[in-house]
Amino acid sequence: MKxxxxxxxxxxxxxxxxxEGRKDILLGIGDDCAQVRIPADQTLVFSMDTLVEGRHFxxxxxxxxxxxxxxxxxxxxLAAMGAKPAFFTLGLTLPNSDAQWLSAFAEGLAEMAEPIGxxxxxxxxxxxxxxxxxxxxxxxxxxxxxxxxxxxLDDDIYVTGTLGDAAAxxxxxxxxxxxxxxxxxxxxxxxxxxxxxxxxxxxxxxxANAMMDISDGFAQDIQHILSAxxxxxxxxxxxxxxxxxxxxxxPDNALSIALTGGDDYELCFTAPKSMREEIRLxxxxxxxxxxxxxxxxxxxxxxxxxxxxxxxWQHF
Length: 316
Known about the structure:
Layout: H1 3-12, E1 25-27, E2 35-36, E3 43-52, H2 63-81, E4 84-94, H3 99-113, E5 119-127, E6 131-140, E7 156-160, H4 165-173, H5 181-192, H6 198-204, E8 210-214, H7 218-229, E9 232-236, H8 244-249, H9 254-260, E10 266-271, H10 276-285, E11 290-297, E12 301-304
Parallel strand pairs: 4-5, 9-12
Antiparallel strand pairs: 1-2, 3-6, 4-6, 7-10, 7-11, 8-10, 9-11
Helix pairs in contact: 2-3, 2-6, 4-5
């Protein structure tokens, strides 16, 4: 297919590009630019992620799964800001214009994007090694934006969900390790279908001081908060939430994988101790697993019970 035929057949006609009923989207796919009206009481936040075949996902992977994971991993940044998803653009570099591959990829995008109100409003396509770039946009009240630089001395440190499963899944997904069928199914879901904590982020923005998503490993990512806020942290290793599946499968390495693995797309946030009960009520109401794992201190970074590497995923 030629570029404009590809855009028309695969993307513009998709329900995830249908702007009907959206007062904020004035012009979507099909023109030189999209046109958006930002709601009067909101500010616009946006983030961009690039995924490269062989680097961020295995070669010859299911295009449907690639599409779903691409949206999920990118909108996790919106969750970290406490923002409501609004729209996204897609940059797609393809080795060839395979209509069957593209249709499955678009369906995967739509499965994740449509339920959260994330509309595709434009993008670009070109020929080359498979590379996917998404820029996601969201709305949030300016006073509630959560920054990495807002952690305060004596804040509690929290983590949602469990950590390490996605990183542990990589050698399973690439065929380097063989596991039982039930374990394969579990880790397949944890790698290909992450659950960005959008509702959690929108609720927690009212009680948290600093917040970010965990994409490159907790031990590395929390240091971005510490550096931006000019504080330190004391974390208790035994409080890091790890799934039963990972604990049983990798009992000797589970903590290290959880701390440094990456691809979890959970939230790490800090909040005053006075907010403990409010946080308990929020997470209980949302059925959101959430663990208090440490506290903000004046300086330094210690994970009690862990003496390993504190570096996570390295992009270069």
